[in-house]
Amino acid sequence: MNAHGLHEPLLDAHPLLTALSAPSRAADIDEADDVYGWLVGSWRMQVLHYRDDLRAAPLQGEIQFGWVLEGRAVQDVWIMPPREQRTGAHAAAHDMYGTTLRVWDPAVRAWRVTYLNPATGQRDELIGRRIGNAIVQIGTHANGTPIRWNFTDIGRDSFHWTGVALAPDGITWVLEAEFAAQRVRG
To answer: Does residue 173 surpass a pLDDT of 90?
Structure first.
């Protein structure tokens, strides 16, 4: 355990991590289809909205991305607050320790995206594609509510991410989350 009473991260030599991780994308995924590989690395995020407008007092978070499953998927972990600030006393409404698995599906020439956050019970399924200069992921929450998650303002070392859900009126899209991310390493 570290000074914060948290368990240290598993070493890269752990058999599960060794079997899971991959050094790069699989050769059978064309470079043009590599929508998520540029994300591989470590990121800090400023949380602008997470169920509530947090711009007046933004929270911080971290995101870790890596190639997995012989390079046929990109997996991430979204953590809020970041690990060095996780004491167990953070607000449950702003707790995130979830993972996204983005798996290339050559049959649909798109990425199948699954997000799970055990801290809140959230589960989402989407299809991700590059559209212009953005990455657009369209799908549903577990309860069937339509959602759209977008990576925009993409730079080599930054991106803007928004997540919206269709309101019960079937017309209005409601902002659920908004993050501004900066690359730390990778």
So the answer is: yes
Q: What is the pLDDT of residues 11-34, one digit of tens each?
A: 446 888 888 999 999 999 999 999
- pTM to 2 decimal places: 0.87
Mean pLDDT, residues 91-117 taken together = 90
Q: Is 18 helix (H, G, I), strand (E, B) or coil?
A: helix
Rounded to the nearest 5°, which phi and psi values hold at 51?
A: 70, -25
Which class does domain 15-185 fall in? mainly beta
Give the helix/strand (H/E) hosting 16. helix 15-20
Rounded Cα gap, residues 80 and 96, in angstroms: 5
> Is residue 110 within 8 Å of 128, Cβ to Cβ?
yes
φ/ψ of 93, rounded to 5, equals -65, -20
The backbone torsions φ and ψ at residue 45, rounded to the nearest 5 degrees and listed phi first, read -125, 145
Pairs from 93-96 (Cβ < 8 Å, separation ≥ 24): 93/51, 93/52, 94/47, 94/50, 94/51, 94/54, 94/59, 95/119, 95/120, 96/50, 96/61, 96/120
Give SS3 for 119: coil
Scanning the structure block, which residue is given the tokens 């801290």? 119
